[in-house]
Amino acid sequence: MQTLSSYVLGRWQTGSGAPTLLYNPATEEPLAQCGTGGVDMAAVLRHAREQGGPALRALGFRRRGELLLGLSQALHAKREELIELSVANGGNTRGDAKFDIDGATGTLAYYAGLAKALPEGNVLPDGAGIQLGRTARYWGQHVHVPRPGVAVHINAFNFPAWGMLEKMACALLAGMPVVEKPGTPSALVAWRIAEVLVESKLLPEGSYQFLCGSAGDLLDHMGPQDALAFTGSSATGARLRGHPALVRHNTRVNIEADSLNAAVLAADVESGSETYGAFLANVALDIQQKAGQKCTATRRVLVPKARVDEVVAELSAALGRLVVGDPADAKTNVGPLASAEALRDVRAGIERLQHYARAACGGVEPIGSRGYFVRPTLLVAVDANAKVFHEHEVFGPCASILPYDGAPEAAAALCNRGGGGLVSSVYSNDPRWLGAVVEGVAPWLGRVWTMSDKLAGHATAPGLVLPHTNHGGPGRAGGGEELGGLRGLSLYLNRCAIQGFQGFVAGTFGAKVSEGATAPA
User: Fold this and answer.
1) Catalytic residue chosen out of the listed positions 166, 256, 314, 482
2) Which residues of 397-416 are buried (b: 16+ CB within 10 A; e: fewer)?
3) If residue 72 lies in a helix (H) or strand (E), which one and from where to where?
4) What are the residue boundaries of the structural domains of the chain, listed by start?
5) Which of 446, 465, 402, 484 is nearest to 259 (CA)?
6) I need a surface site. Which of 327, 361, 425, 508 has the fewest CB within 10 A?
7) Would you state the pLDDT for residue 467?
8) C-alpha torsion sign, points 274, 277, 279, 282
9) Phi and psi at residue 52, to the nearest 5°
């Protein structure tokens, strides 16, 4: 059995003590083991602050961008190997594996492109200068500068490549070293990525460290210039946010957590229209892709009451054509869940929802004798206002149809019952109706995706996270923000107002960012 080690303090270190096993979720065969016992977490953070940070900041924004491009190319060269590992350890179909791997390398390349428009050094102007006195001699300029700490990234199991590297891209470009801890069930993919990054010799020593297993007492040693970014459950996120060391030092914390994303169909959308086709395709895709294990997947489908039977028939037919099985088989559309724990949670979640809904297709019945499989499941709520649909996320191939009266106010109110989310999609050809819903839900979402016949065929699916726009959301979704172009650097930079003689302030710190780039908000 393969033993996965951690890359810390400039070397690979195998953990001591009882290891954690990693499995093939389709066969339940043990694949590897890992652990971080014996790793000196305080030393890991010191190494990042004292060696990695200064080395990164010595490069400046543009050279750090070149570094990101080199990492993207190094990983792309191992694309086929990483896809195979993703199929074996993550339970991903080939298409799902490519979604993760290509998203990771594409995000690195995107931030490398942004860096070309940034200054050579480490000072990023934030807006125009400001006259502060009765004459322009007294001048002010807001700037962003790298924080001399370390970024700790605790990543989720569902996107071991993309989730890790989208955080890394922002932190490294900002000039902050990283300590990466992947979700353990799919850590084989993240570990091989770590090997490729280290072998590339592109990263300055101490700027990248990798923990394969538990974070141990890592957070106990974080300080006021450090940053923690976490993706996972809201319960775990809340515990991390309240960690005594993080509270004591006011350490920056960014949480991306649960999200009961909605897809809202307007009554004006005609059967057979391009908008209706996009609605059906996107809802079905979110149930199918990654076996529903996406933080951006649609969980609640808002449908006008008069259209429920039609939508149920269409979606049930589409889901019924999907093949659930071994992701290594080219005929498979839906692979297994990532772990035995995930299987238990998803089955329990579906059973909980079924007390308040009827099953249109799918359910919790076992599929075969081995593997963590769940059928694509579509439920129809008896009462769309039942709390369970707005408070409990089933992190698997399951969505619930919630009938509503078709009014924009009703749609927005139901959507907002989710308590805050990452993204919701709205389908309508009526601009006024569409605008009313968007305005109503925007305070509760990190992103609102809209579709009309005029856009059909020209947009990516709502579940796809683009590095150009914000990823995060208020309330239940964690209250955090990632990506969004250069806004993604803000967690790792400090905004400071420089005041003084205009000739000095404007001449030294007021150089404008090149056209096309936007300073972090």
Assistant:
1) 256
2) bbbbbbbbebebebbbebbb
3) helix 60-76
4) 44-216+487-509, 261-468
5) 446
6) 508
7) 96
8) negative
9) -65, -45
For residue 134, the Cα-to-chain-centroid distance in whole angstroms is: 48
The two structure tokens encoding residue 267: 């009554």
The DSSP secondary-structure symbol of 398 reads E
Q: What 8-state DSSP symbol labels residue 50?
A: I
What is the rounded CA–CA span in Å between residue 360 and residue 318? Answer: 12
What pLDDT score does 443 carry?
Answer: 98
Contact present, 254 and 180 (Cβ < 8 Å): no
What is the pLDDT, as a whole number, of residue 511? 59
- Respond yes or no: is residue 256 known to be catalytic: yes
Q: What is the pLDDT of residue 368?
A: 83
| Amino acid in the structure at residue 280 | L
| DSSP track, 124-177 | EE-S--EE-SSSTTEEEEEEEEE-SS-EEEE--SS-TTHHHHHHHHHHHHHT--
What confidence tens digit (pLDDT) does each residue in 66-85 have? Answer: 999 999 999 999 999 999 99
CATH classification number, 44-216+487-509, choose in 3.40.605.10, 3.10.25.10, 2.10.25.10, 3.40.190.10: 3.40.605.10
**Which of these is catalytic: 170, 295, 398, 415?**
295
pLDDT at 510: 84
Answer whether 0.90 is exceeded by the pTM: yes
Alpha-carbon span 279 to 272, nearest angstrom: 11
Per-residue pLDDT tens digits for 82-115:
999 999 999 999 999 999 999 999 999 999 999 9
CB 204 within 8 A of CB 220: no
Measured N-to-C along each axis, helices 60-76 and 187-200 cross at an angle, to the nearest 10 degrees, of 120
Rg (CA), the chain: 24
- For the chain, which residues score pLDDT lower than 70? 511-519, 521
Q: Where are the alpha helices (DSSP H) in 305-430?
A: 308-320, 340-354, 387-391, 408-416
Q: Which is it for strands 480-483 and 470-473: parallel, antiparallel or unpaired?
A: antiparallel
In angstroms, the CA 160 to CA 166 distance is 11
Q: Over 362-393, what HEC string results?
A: EECCCCCCCCCCCEEEEEEECCCCCHHHHHCC
CATH of range 261-468; options 3.90.1150.10, 3.10.20.740, 3.40.309.10, 2.60.40.10: 3.40.309.10
